[in-house]
Design brief:
alpha/beta, single chain, Aldehyde Dehydrogenase, Chain A, domain 2, binds adenosine-5'-diphosphate, 487 residues, six-stranded mixed beta sheet, Aldehyde Dehydrogenase, Chain A, domain 1
């Protein structure tokens, strides 16, 4: 397959399961529809794997593990580097595929394709830096050798909001570490993962190292694989509710687990903030991916002294955005993923309004096809409103007034989530004090963007376990072995 030579990437992308280097139908012949959220219409069908297909994929990963784990680090590094370059040579085709199945505007999709490719570049550089240790023990009687080995076959489960980058963020370190894997993408966005499998095969990844199963029957397919004793690791990105289920299912076989779960990010604007920076930061933290990101600012706490000005400027900024199909030039905000997602956002806004919030902009559903929701700013959101306790996953900014630093920190931390927080202040001591006090894995200090392949991404509390990216990202796919020998 060559995505480079086609003007219709949906036609060209393989629509089957990818197992042991072969494109195969589901054993029972089942298929599932992939829809375009901008129209609500069907784009195409892909294979819909059942439990036996899942097992076939795991068998392939298990069979490939010994050979793959023994490859030279440079060989694994070179494959990732080639895949990085192949992705960059196909930015437009992959971006179009992403926009059609997921909805984000083409410019944003191009941005994600580059971001996704960067994980391969980063981990191609990490593959050849897996170290070890050698030391004389304190007694002087024995030596220790410490080595790092691949954890073994992995199950990677990804969400629909970043269809390519969530895959490369897991596949990159797994390949670098020498693990084989089964990737199960979200049923809404299987096409980017299938295209990615084709790219990796072209880059020289041996058969069976990456297997991809697309399925609408996630629960029934995944559970026996987690409990079956052949997979050694689960890496999951998705909701906290599903993460809890998978963590429980992973207990039987005592699997290594990395979980990137939900967020409820607080964003704090102090009176000494540079307001231009704060408005732009809040805009980025809220509107990236139409708000469909676990890092999205979910609760915007703004100090009384600057509240009205900040609220007015943010509303003007959001009201000026162009909403439309992601394929249309000039579109800045695409549709939400599906009707379920849109109804959830609509109900959260309605509940906040019922409980006393004012709508500064947006808040009404447009007519016509597709799952569009307008950029919305809510002012004076009251503490009991559901929107402050639920991951919104939509372009809605709930504003809350505050006066006191300690009180706002208590409010910011009063959630079971702990992924990211955003702080806007020009006072260095306050910046550090507040950053340290926030119960989160990441802080955006005078910025609304924290994601980077070179940074350790992850949360505390019920936002997850482990980190992806950065120097530590590869550790999640490695075991440490210690060998003792007499001196
Ligand atoms: P979202 O609400 O954003 O769709 P989910 O947590 O439901 O997030 O989905 C994230 C990923 O987890 C998707 O690939 C989805 O198919 C998968 N998933 C959902 N439920 C289960 C389950 N019971 N077992 C395994 N995977 C699941």
């Amino acid at each position: 397959m060559s995505l480079a030579t086609t003007s219709d990437p949906v036609t060209e992308v393989p629509k089957k399961l990818f197992i042991s280097g072969h494109w195969t139908s589901a054993g029972d012949g089942a298929e599932m529809a992939v829809d375009n959220p901008a129209t609500g219409e069907k784009l195409c069908s892909v294979a819909d794997a059942g439990p036996e297909d899942g097992q076939r994929a795991v068998d392939a990963a298990v069979a490939a593990q010994p050979g793959w784990g023994a490859t030279a680090p440079r060989e694994r590094s070179d494959i990732l580097r080639r895949a990085y370059e192949l992705i960059l040579s196909r930015v437009d085709e992959l971006a179009m595929l992403m926009t059609l199945e997921m909805g984000k505007p083409l410019d944003a999709a191009r941005g994600e394709v580059s971001y996704a490719a960067e994980f391969f570049r980063w981990f191609s550089e990490e593959a050849v830096r897996i170290g070890g240790d050698y030391a004389l023990l304190p007694s002087g009687r024995s030596r220790q050798l410490i080595l790092r080995q691949p954890v073994g076959p992995c199950l990677l489960i990804t969400p629909w909001n970043f269809p390519l980058a969530m895959g490369t963020r897991k596949i990159g370190p797994a390949v670098a570490a020498g693990c084989t894997m089964v990737l199960k993408p979200a049923p809404q966005t299987p096409l980017c993962s299938l295209a990615l499998a084709a790219v990796l095969a072209e880059a020289g990844l041996p058969d069976g190292v990456l297997n991809v199963i697309t399925t609408s029957r996630a629960g029934g397919v995944v559970e026996p694989l987690l409990r079956g004793g052949h997979i050694r690791k689960l890496s999951f990105t998705g909701s906290t509710a599903v993460g809890r289920i998978l963590l429980a299912q992973s207990a039987d076989a005592v699997l290594r687990t990395s979980l990137e779960l939900g967020g409820n990010a607080p964003l704090l604007v102090f009176p000494d903030a540079d307001l231009d920076v704060a408005v732009e930061g809040a805009f980025a933290a809220k509107m990236r991916n139409m708000g469909e990101a676990c890092t999205a600012a979910n609760r915007l706490f703004v100090h009384d002294d600057i509240y009205d000005e900040f609220a007015g400027r943010l509303s003007d900024r959001l009201a000026a955005l162009t909403v439309g199909p992601g394929t249309e030039p000039g579109t800045e905000v695409g549709p939400l993923i599906d009707d379920v997602g849109r109804r959830k956002v609509r109900d959260l806004v309605q509940d906040a309004v019922d409980q006393g919030a004012d709508v500064l902009t947006g808040g009404t559903l447009p007519d016509g096809p597709g799952f569009f929701y307008p950029p919305t700013v809510l002012s004076g959101v009251t503490p009991g409103s559901k929107i402050l306790h639920t991951e919104v996953f939509g372009p809605v900014a709930p504003l809350i007034r505050f006066h006191d630093e300690q009180a706002v920190l208590r409010a910011a931390n009063s959630t079971e989530f702990g992924l990211v927080g955003y702080v806007f202040t020009q006072d260095l001591r306050r910046a550090l004090r507040v950053s340290e006090a926030l119960e989160v894995g990441m802080v955006g200090l005078n910025t609304g963007v924290v994601s980077d392949p070179a940074a350790p991404f992850g949360g505390v509390k019920q936002s997850g376990l482990g980190r992806e990216g950065g120097r530590v990202g590869i550790d999640e796919f490695l075991e440490t072995k210690y060998i003792a020998t007499p001196a």
